[in-house]
Design a protein that fits this description.
Strand order of the largest sheet: 1-2-9-4-7-10
Order of helices and strands: EEEEEEEEEHEHHHHHHHHHH
CATH architecture of the largest domain: Sandwich
Structural class: alpha+beta
Helix content: 40-55%
Length: 264
């Protein structure tokens, strides 16, 4: 497997988490794949070789993975290569001005966001080396660079606060900090990120726990739930099962056996 990331530079850093490249042979006859777990981000993906699919069927040559509350497995048979852009939760909306709450749990063609430009950028990425393709994607985004009207900065502040506190920041405090009512914040936040603040807070807390189990599957789960400030063990198990598709014990077992791993 070959996988690497490139951090954004300049004005894109406020919106983009990374540019990434994946190349892997998934073998056969039973296809492998890539698990995508809820983490608040969205991805634009352009397939360079092979074809990923979900249970619903093959995915288009270029697509967006929208905001997720549940995991999804992108399956593939044989060799595959793909390149993509991973956006912060607030990052994709300013470039395309499409309400992210329309795309929750969806994987849609890039043309839905970018129109005819989707074919143009797809062709440019397919004909370039990975690093040159990153440059093409950066140019594509910079050409659509939004004028910051202050709204993006507000949502970015809220997302950063939720991330730093791993979901512990009260929504009322977030709203007051960015000078919005709770109702205004909820509405704008769903439009820009696809989530409510409470939903993203829940995902960030889960993400911190999941990362710990990915690195240390033998971690004591009771202590982990306490550290993550879950009310009780039942709440911890319920949230984790909802977002990972498995209970924490089952997830840790799958990680320990190699069935689930980073960039699987």
């Amino acid at each position: 497997m070959r996988y690497f990331e490139s951090p954004p530079e300049g004005p894109l850093a406020d919106f983009v988490q990374c540019f990434w490249y994946l190349e892997k042979d998934y073998g056969g006859p039973n296809p492998g794949g890539e698990w995508i777990f809820p983490d608040g981000t969205t991805d634009l993906v352009i397939q360079r070789d092979g074809q990923f699919a979900t249970e619903s069927g093959p995915l288009p040559a270029s697509f967006m993975v929208g905001p997720r509350h549940t995991p999804v497995l992108l399956r593939c048979h044989g060799r595959a290569a793909a390149i993509g852009v991973r956006f912060h939760p607030h990052g994709l909306y300013p470039f395309f001005r499409q309400p992210l709450n329309r795309f929750v749990e969806q994987i849609v063609p890039l043309a839905v966001l970018a129109g005819p430009q989707a074919t143009e950028i797809e062709q440019q990425v397919l004909s370039a080396t990975p690093w040159a393709a990153f440059a093409r994607l950066k140019q594509f985004l910079l050409a659509r660079q939004p004028v910051d009207d202050g709204e993006s900065a507000r949502m970015r502040t809220c997302v950063q606060w939720l991330r730093q506190t791993q979901g512990a920041a009260p929504v009322s405090a977030l709203a007051a900090h960015v000078k919005l009512s709770t109702r205004q914040l909820e509405r704008r936040f769903r439009l820009v990120t696809g989530f409510s603040p409470k939903q993203l807070a829940r995902i960030y807390r889960f993400d911190a726990v999941r990362d710990r189990l990915m690195l240390q599957p033998g971690t004591d789960l009771t202590a982990l739930a306490h550290t993550a400030q879950y009310h009780d063990q039942a709440h911890f198990i319920h949230d984790f099962r909802d977002l990972a598709g498995l209970a924490p014990t089952g997830f840790a077992r799958e990680v320990a056996t190699g069935a689930i791993k980073f960039n699987n």
